[in-house]
Design a protein that fits this description.
One of its GO terms (cellular component) is mitochondrial inner membrane. It holds the Pfam family RCC1. InterPro entries: Mitochondrial_GEF_domain, RCC1/BLIP-II, Reg_chr_condens. GO terms for molecular function: guanyl-nucleotide exchange factor activity; rRNA binding. The radius of gyration is 28 Å and the shape is globular. Helix content is 9%, strand content 39%. The chain has 452 residues and is mainly beta. The chain has a domain of 170 residues: Methylamine Dehydrogenase, Chain H, CATH 2.130.10.30.
Length: 452
């Protein structure tokens, strides 16, 4: 038994201990809250800035990151594959505002402004001078067949106020469109894809030839297949040149064409608003929402109109009435994609179509579920707004600035951080809002905008 004095002392000590314990607990919680709280201080005049990200095969120099090929640290090994998006900071260093870009077969071309002047830069394979005449050091006679960091492409511009609007790249040629000086073509012209006369046994390595293509009217879009070029005019007409062995020029024959020629067939008189081609199959979308196709059909790309033939040499209307009003398309090597005005995506052809591992071929369009592109109850307004493709993979850009890729993951071209192929659309983790994306055979590049 405790006396009254001892009981009082015990209560006082217990109360003090409890207050001390409570105070200690509060201090610990406060410290934990401070550590878990992230403070971001953004200036009043902070603006979102442009950033360019690249990924895929680095061995050709197409990613433009010099350290991937020749690391500054001797302990580091060269990196041949970049499996997730990497910021190409060099473009910021040279203060290049990129307006557009294009990915060819192992090379990349950027166009934009530098010091308020129109400029073009290229990196990667240059064996056919698709990046222009590149000599290093200057006047040394040492011609660069590979460029591992973006370098300037000399264009014979007559007016410094001229703007470079578009760029497209094929297997080994480049087409650049301007606002007042027509368009320029560089690189391999073995089939007339540069829109100039074919010269037998012409040597393209180390060539200083830059061809100016004059075409009546305003060029709305330029597209390059493997070895042919397509020009969409603002009045809806389509011109083509280059190889025609699969009927990909759409001129009604299978010969090569060295001059820009008007494409007829079922698109004659139609207001064509969009073209797509990465290989030898061409898709065209009209203002009415109809879809047309020509070229290679070995894998059911055009089987709905080809009558079991493997080539279609003139544009034909594709009777896909169930897909709705078409606004965009993408034509890869053996598979095709379309987008309608409701944001729905349909796929057909042969390959990793995006409908799972059990579906690899279809002659008719199949819809890819919208949920695979981020549309759900929490984000009901998300929808696909643009489509792009390489030879073996697809890319879809959404209204939220998210990028989804699927298909054959050649050398990490999907940007998903793995070496595995992807059987359905999967989001690429780009640390910025994607504004524009382009696909090569085994690499990709994107123009983005920083979040803050």
């Amino acid at each position: 038994m405790l006396c009254s004095r001892c009981r009082l002392l015990h209560r006082m000590l217990s109360s003090h201990s409890m207050r001390e314990a409570s105070s200690f607990t509060k201090r610990i919680k406060t410290l934990e809250d401070r550590e878990s709280t992230v403070h971001e201080h953004v200036g009043q005049h902070k603006q979102r800035v442009q950033r360019v990200y690249v990924w895929g095969y680095a061995g050709t120099g197409a990613l433009g990151q010099r350290s991937f090929i020749t690391p500054s640290n001797p302990r580091q090994k060269p990196r041949s594959k970049q499996r997730h998006p990497h910021r190409l900071a060099y473009l910021d260093e040279i203060v290049l505002k990129t307006n557009a870009l294009a990915c060819g077969y192992g090379f990349t071309v950027f166009i934009g402004q530098r010091d308020s002047k129109p400029v073009a830069f290229g990196t990667g394979i240059n064996t056919d001078s698709q990046l222009g005449f590149q000599e290093y050091p200057k006047k040394s006679g040492r011609i660069l067949d590979y460029v591992i960091q973006p370098v300037g492409i000399d264009l014979p511009l007559e007016n410094s106020e001229t703007k470079l609007l578009q760029v497209a790249c094929g297997r080994a040629h480049t087409v650049i469109v301007t606002d007042q000086e027509g368009c320029f073509t560089l690189g391999n012209n073995a089939y007339g894809q540069c829109g100039r006369g074919i010269v037998e046994k012409e040597i393209y390595g180390g060539s200083q030839t830059v061809n100016r293509v004059e075409v009546e009217g305003i060029i709305k879009q330029v597209v390059c297949g493997q070895d042919h070029s397509l020009f969409l005019m603002d009045d809806g007409r389509v011109f083509s040149c280059g190889i025609g062995s699969d009927g990909q020029t759409g001129l009604g024959h299978y010969k090569s064409e060295a001059s820009l020629s008007l494409v007829g067939g079922d698109i004659e008189g139609e207001d064509i608003v969009h073209l797509s081609c990465k290989g030898d199959t061409v898709l065209a979308v009209s203002g009415k929402g109809d879809l047309f196709g020509w070229g290679n059909s070995e894998y059911d790309q055009l089987s709905s109109v080809s009558n079991n033939e493997t080539q279609v040499n003139v544009p034909r209307h594709l009777p896909f009435s169930s897909v709705g009003h078409v606004v965009r398309s993408a034509s890869a090597g053996a598979m095709c994609l379309l987008l309608n005005d409701k944001g729905d995506v349909y796929v057909w052809g042969y390959g990793l179509l995006g409908c799972g591992p059990q579906v690899e071929q279809s002659a008719l369009p199949m819809q890819i579920p919208p949920t695979l592109f981020g549309k759900n109850e929490l984000n009901p307004d998300a929808q696909v707004v643009d489509l792009q493709c390489g030879l073996y993979h697809f890319a879809a850009l959404t209204s939220d600035g998210d990028l989804f890729t699927w298909g054959r993951n050649m050398r990490g071209a999907l940007g998903l951080g793995t070496a595995k192929d992807q059987y359905f659309p999967y989001k690429v983790h780009v640390p910025a809002e994607v504004m524009e994306v382009r696909c090569g055979v085994d690499h990709m590049a994107a123009i983005c905008r920083s979040f803050i």
